[in-house]
Write a structure and sequence with these properties.
The protein is of the alpha+beta class. Helices cover about 35% and strands about 20% of the residues. The protein is built from 11 helices and 14 strands.
């Protein structure tokens, strides 16, 4: 590390400093802090989750305690208040911590508790984003992306690349609760290195859409079920620039939406069935991860997980144990889904295209089907319900 200014030897280019203690701001600090905190938790009986290294679980004599870590911010929950209180006292004796009470705000995510369940949104984060981009008084849009828009590379280059990257980076973080912008954010994030004016116009369209849906968030209803299911879809050759397909999926636990993704596939698919099959492989990995996470939380399940797909050809490839001419060119890692289907860990079901909830993550939809799918996924706007 460099010596601080005004130090008597700060002008010596050959001076080398040995670090005895990691200081705030260095790249080693988060790793050192995590090592110290995890060692304290493990000393008091916590087990690190194999599915998520930031999740720690302890099964006590009178209850379960769960700790979720994000750098130096912690969420503590459990089914016994005394166990939670004892953990807080233990941490206070070891570290300088501050108890902020019941969870209401965490890393830009607001949480409201009601008789229906938990409602998650990022209202304040959106307001700050609109103020920073000078669009707080702009006219709002009904959808985040025009359903008839065609991407082009012939637009003029945008002059301020840093501004574009900063806005898109904030929008990526916003997709934690705003599944409605996942697809369009995945599009604009593909041009971070060389954005054009047309790409910046799409970013502004997203912000104007957020202006009209500031309070929209995700409702988690109370449910005793831990059944895992997922919807998977792909838009074959949907990208007009390189003809790569887009993978989209969403997963549910107990009827509540928990994860979703919209991502361009890394290779060009030779058929619609191949594109859908690759999307099924990605969804299968997500379902297996969710199952292992629930196991670490103390909710084991031997029931097959459900996967809904609207392409029967891809489903046949997944259930057919014989490799044939149509599947020779598909990478081995894509056949991961076939192993899960054959071992009865995942069961595939056909769903009609108009019932495909993952459709919103693969293409831009008109207003009516867009809002319909949003409602089915549990995305709510309290202003619409008032």
């Amino acid at each position: 590390m460099k010596l601080p200014p005004e130090h008597p030897q700060s002008d010596d280019p050959d001076m080398v400093c040995k670090l005895h203690k990691s200081t705030y701001g260095l790249k080693q600090s988060p790793r050192a802090w995590y090592a110290k905190l995890s060692s304290i938790l493990e000393k008091f009986g916590f087990q690190r989750s194999s599915a998520d290294s930031s999740l720690f679980v302890r099964d006590g004599l009178v209850g379960k305690v769960i700790v979720l870590i994000y750098v130096d911010d912690l969420i503590v929950t459990g089914d016994n208040a005394e166990e939670i209180h004892f953990l807080k006292l233990t941490l206070q004796n070891k570290l300088a911590i501050k108890d902020l009470g019941r969870l209401k705000y965490f890393l830009g995510i607001e949480l409201a508790n009601s008789h229906e369940g938990f409602f998650l949104n990022q209202r304040k984060y959106i307001l700050d984003l609109l103020k920073d981009s000078d669009l707080i008084d702009s006219k709002h849009a009904r959808t985040p992306l025009d359903s008839k828009l065609q991407l082009s590379t012939h637009s003029e280059a945008f002059f301020d690349i840093t501004k574009y990257q900063r806005l898109v980076g904030k929008l990526i973080y916003l997709t934690i609760t705003r599944l409605d912008i996942s697809y369009v954010v995945s599009i604009v994030s593909q041009f971070m290195h060389a954005p054009t004016l047309a790409h910046m116009q799409i970013v502004k369209r997203i912000l104007r859409y957020l202006k009209g849906s500031i309070c929209r968030g995700l409702l988690m209803t109370k449910n005793d079920s831990t059944a895992i299911m997922g919807y998977t879809d792909a838009d074959w050759a949907g990208n007009s620039l390189d003809r790569k397909s887009t993978t989209g999926f969403c997963t549910f636990v107990g009827g509540n939406l928990v994860t979703w993704r919209s991502k361009k596939q890394t290779v060009v698919a030779r058929s619609n069935a191949e594109a859908e099959y690759r999307a099924m492989a990605s969804t299968a990995c997500e379902l297996i991860w969710l199952k292992s996470l629930l196991l670490d939380l103390g909710f084991p399940s031997n029931e097959p997980m459900s996967m809904f797909c609207d392409n029967q050809a891809a489903m046949h490839i997944a259930s057919n144990p014989v490799f044939h001419e149509r599947t020779k060119h598909i990478e081995v890692d894509c056949h991961y889904v076939r192993a899960q289907v054959q071992s009865k860990i995942i069961t595939t079901y056909y769903t009609h295209s108009h019932d495909q909830l993952a459709d919103i993550f693969t293409k831009s939809l008109p207003t009516v089907p867009f809002l319909c799918i949003m409602s089915k996924l549990g995305s709510r706007d309290p202003l619409d319900l008032a």
